[in-house]
């Protein structure tokens, strides 16, 4: 099978968990000068060395040898194409940064277990990769601290809490500092994560806050009644299908869900109160779900200062604890041919009314608790 035929017959891209370091052109912004990074070596998972047997010179023998070589070479070509399109899943990371360094971890986009585009290619924040990177930094004595660059409207309660706890573990194990910088948006779950930082700074145009918990669903029973559609659900208990868009939601179900939201909310507010030194009663007043400007957040004690990113980096480089440290970036990126190819294609955004209705109903069934801004703001 040649390369063109293989590509044609592939039904959909295969996503691989591939993490890398990417460098920005400048030290002060995510798109500026290239900085030192860590080298990633790729293993292709197959051996290209083989030896030919020495023996008789009969036609049958040489025919078998030729057949074996033909099969082997075609196999290498086949798996080579797969490897090129999927990238390597077996990664060996070696630290080539000479001397001490401070690493910037990026919390950008939706905080979720997995983020992919419409073609299934990983993009934006990659939760497991970030957790693995923190474990790596804990065991690297050359690392002297972490910078959190945050530009996110939040996400799932589980992922936000898991990332916060991972940062707390980093501090407890290493006793190294964590500094956070808020870019355009640092709200809800993103703010939750940043509470692990020793100091927090923001751009003067930053939108932050949105402290709270929510769960979204839809009730399509009115539409179903007009269309003459009836929900039929066989269940083991009366609350087994809570938030079903086709069955409606009872007052008891609302009460059950409210108890879950209140529990998660109390955890969130408690963390804000403890980490920022804000009395619990005051923290609850702040945490009514509203968003704040950087100036308002500073007055409330949610952040420590307001400055541009360049000034923030200058401040950190002037700290004695980071003397002689290099500043490097830690960011997930997939450079496989598959990723590069599909990233150039336009994203499919147009949907029929039926497709949009299906998406709404599908999202309702899979609803989860979230620390996030509403969709209209989280873009």
Structure description:
- The chain is of the alpha/beta class.
- It has one domain (20-45, 88-332, 349-372): Alpha-Beta Complex (2-enoyl-CoA Hydratase, Chain A, domain 1).
- Helix content is 39%, strand content 16%.
- It has helices at 3-9, 59-86, 127-138, 157-174, 189-194, 221-227, 251-276, 280-286, 294-300, 309-317, 337-343, 353-365; strands spanning 39-43, 90-94, 101-108, 143-152, 154-156, 178-187, 199-202, 207-209, 291-293, 305-306, 326-330, 370-372.
- The strands form three sheets. Strands 3, 4, 6, 7, 8, 9, 10 and 11 form an eight-stranded mixed sheet that branches. It has a two-stranded antiparallel ribbon with strand order 1-2.
- Helix 5 links the parallel strand 6 (178-187) and strand 7 (199-202).
- The two termini are 43 Å apart.
- 27% of the residues are buried.
- The model is unreliable at 6-20, 22-37, 39-56, 82-95, 350-366 and 375-379 (pLDDT under 50).
Which oligomeric form is depicted? single chain
Helix content: 25-40%
Summed up, the domain count is: 1
CATH topology: 2-enoyl-CoA Hydratase, Chain A, domain 1
Per CATH, the architecture is: Alpha-Beta Complex
Q: How is the main sheet built?
A: 8 strands, mixed
Instruction: Report the C-alpha radius of gyration, rounded.
Output: 26 Å
Beta strand %:
15-25%
CATH superfamily: 2-enoyl-CoA Hydratase, Chain A, domain 1
Q: How does the helix and strand content classify structurally?
A: alpha/beta
CATH class: Alpha Beta
Uncertain ranges? 6-20, 22-37, 39-56, 82-95, 350-366, 375-379
**Count of DSSP E strands?**
12
Distance between the termini: 43 Å
- Mean model confidence by pLDDT: 74
User: Judging from the principal axes of the Cα atoms, what is the shape?
Assistant: flat
